Amino acid sequence: MAFLRNTWYMIGWANELDIGFVHRTIVNENILAYRLSDGSIAAIEDRCPHRFVPLHKGRQIGDVIECGYHGLCFGADGSCVKNPVEGAIIPKAARVRTFPAVSRYGVLWVWLGDPAAADPSSIVNLDFLVDPKRSTVQGYMPTRANYELAIDNLSDLTHVQYVHSEFQASEVFHKLKSEVFQEGNTITTRLTLPNGKPAAVYSNAVGGLDAPIDLVNEVEWHAPSVAILRVRGYRPGDRSESLFDVKSAHIISAESQGTCHYFFGNTRDFALGDHKVDEQIKQWQRTAFIEQDKPMLEAQQAFLGDRDLFDLHPVLLHTDAGSVRIRRALRKLIEDERDAAVPK
């Protein structure tokens, strides 16, 4: 399976480095990320070239990583900087690959393509994750499913009526309006549920569940796998001011063809600093994502195996328009990158 490489992938949350280094497989690359003494981020191949033991089995000493098997030490530039045996030669081949890495918006990003093309300004703007006027709750869910299946799940939120029915089902689901907008390679899907009582999950935001609202869900996709989900409630027919604004980032980094890393960060503009609400959201995340979405995605992947969803010619509904457009845009970007790499 081909992946987009000249792009930034999330490898973890920046606060994970507070307790040590981060190691994950991203697009079949084993990567170890850690913070240097100057505060910058280093990312190196998580594999000692001596006996191929993962370097995360070792330890960080200052700005170098010491292999836990035989003690070779590697710097942020990938070179072996120390052989623990005094006077022993360090072989020229004793080095590991490196990857450009930065921390932005509380997220650790790594670049897997041409290092010369790694421009941090191209990272999707997720400043709402660190906005002091919002409260943020983070999470992570390793998933045995292709990352595109997770994107499909996000770009068609009609699934919440059934998968998350006990706390997100809408009494006006039959009246929903589905729209898709595209600007360049940014694709937005909008789902509007008009003039209905709010679902249970929004009780803290509206102070009760009796008064009807217009509920607007928008998912803004950025290649290859960043989705910004915005959920707003309005008084029926009045878009002048929202009753609540919940904005979250869903970042799905491919691990392999059939597995992915699903990171999510939920932010809100109400109940700021309320730890009780934070815990309620964490419980909702555990229930909705880990107990409900994850088993559905993994069951889907188990059936598909190595096959692509569209190779099986699925029946398409009008609410699939966004996910279809996203898949086509992603394919085009991957093909263009592959073609550009072919010598002329």
TrEMBL record:
**Entries under PROSITE patterns matching the protein:** RIESKE
User: Which controlled-vocabulary keywords does the entry list?
Assistant: 2Fe-2S, Iron, Iron-sulfur, Metal-binding, Methyltransferase, Monooxygenase, Oxidoreductase, Transferase
Family annotation (Gene3D superfamilies): Naphthalene 1,2-dioxygenase Alpha Subunit, Chain A, domain 1, Rieske [2Fe-2S] iron-sulphur domain
Q: Which InterPro entries match?
A: Cholesterol_7-desaturase (IPR050584), Rieske_2Fe-2S (IPR017941), Rieske_2Fe-2S_sf (IPR036922), VanA_C_cat (IPR044043)
**Per the record, a Pfam family?**
Rieske
Q: Share an example GO biological-process annotation for this protein.
A: methylation
> Any idea where the Rieske domain is?
8-110
Q: Which PANTHER family match?
A: 3-KETOSTEROID-9-ALPHA-MONOOXYGENASE, OXYGENASE COMPONENT, IRON-SULFUR DOMAIN CONTAINING PROTEIN
State the protein's name. Vanillate O-demethylase monooxygenase subunit
This protein's species is Glaciimonas immobilis
